[in-house]
Amino acid sequence: MSQDTSLIRPEIAALADYNAGLALDRFRAVYGVEARAKLDSNENPLGPAPAAIAAMRDCAAGIWRYPDAADLALREAIGAATGIDPEAVIVGNGSEDLIGAIYRAVLRPGDRVVTICPSFGLHEFGAQAFGASVEKVHFAEDWTFPLPGLVEALRRPARVLIFSSPSNPAGPAVSLEEFSALMEAVPQGTLVVFDEAYREYLDPALAFDPCAIMRAAGLDWISLRTFSKAYGLAGARVGYGLCSSTALTRALRKTRNPFAVNAFAGAAALAALQDQAHLARTVALARSERARLSAALTAAGHAVVPSQANFLFFRTPGPAADFAEALRRRGVLVKGWQEPPFLDWARVTIATPDENDAFLDAMA
């Protein structure tokens, strides 16, 4: 078989591999043990709402038909829940799908993208795949939001500003005052992509309406959200974006796949959105266990970042890849971070008390 790589664009060949969590069947095949705790992908340990599972079962009989390419029922439900015009809502195969659609729609070779560090890998890799340059602004040493650095970075032309809050992988959240000040600094012609995959886990005192602030600043923007985390539908792959204009959503429908959300996923997301009691149970568990796990890690001598998400970012006693490998051999999966200079930091998902105890036991 030919190994000629000359067909591959240099931008693609140079990309780092995506640091994905390990599927359980793959873990069993490689390590020969059952997992005691799978804590490497920020999944909801309670799973989806029962109504979402029932909706997928009910959908099976009609699966020979294509789903609605316009995703109208789901967009209308999201619009009703968020106050956004359904015509300004875009859905996709997870928010990762929409990040790719955004970059395909707006980026040109040589464009500049500004983000934070550490960050979700696809914010960086997705832009580099289109020949854009990426400037990464580091969090402060105390893990406060890097507002001054971002403001300074935006003094030079940038096609896209993209960042998450609560931040993945670190966990801090931008405050209302910081977000407002940052939006005032964004120049016209820069698209703001605000990744809110973990917004449901925010403490109420830190929650605000970012869409209203971006709208008031007169910017082009998209708020990315997902059903993968707090709604427990990671395997279904449903993400959505709230957009500043219908022109932006029309463009994104051209750059994502035509049938981006399959029938099972769309039915599950629609049902999950209606069960706010299940969402509340999920969030309550994550918040209480997050505090307990953070205290235990701190007591054990690890530096731990204050988190507003369903995970913790903590310093490891050596290379994070070696640390994660050692835990895997004890049946516990965490994610060793691979983004310099955080190669001695790991991210652990907040799960059930038993799974979290298994993690602490393996650490000891």
Mean pLDDT: 95
Q: Structurally, how many domains make up the residues?
A: 2
User: Count of helices?
Assistant: 14
Using the coordinates shown, work out and report the CATH topology of the largest domain.
Answer: Aspartate Aminotransferase, domain 2
CATH class division of the largest domain: Alpha Beta
Largest sheet properties:
7 strands, mixed
| Order of helical and strand elements | HHEHHEHEHEHEHEHEEHHHEHEEEH
> Reading side by side through the largest sheet, how are the strands ordered?
2-8-7-6-5-3-4
Helix % is 25-40%
Q: Provide the structure class.
A: alpha/beta
Radius of gyration: 20 Å
Spans where pLDDT lies below 50 across 5 or more residues? none
Number of strands: 12
Beta-strand proportion: 5-15%
Distance between the termini: 48 Å
Proper CATH architecture of the largest domain: 3-Layer(aba) Sandwich
Name the CATH superfamily assignment of the largest domain.
Answer: Type I PLP-dependent aspartate aminotransferase-like (Major domain)
Oligomer: single chain
Shape: globular
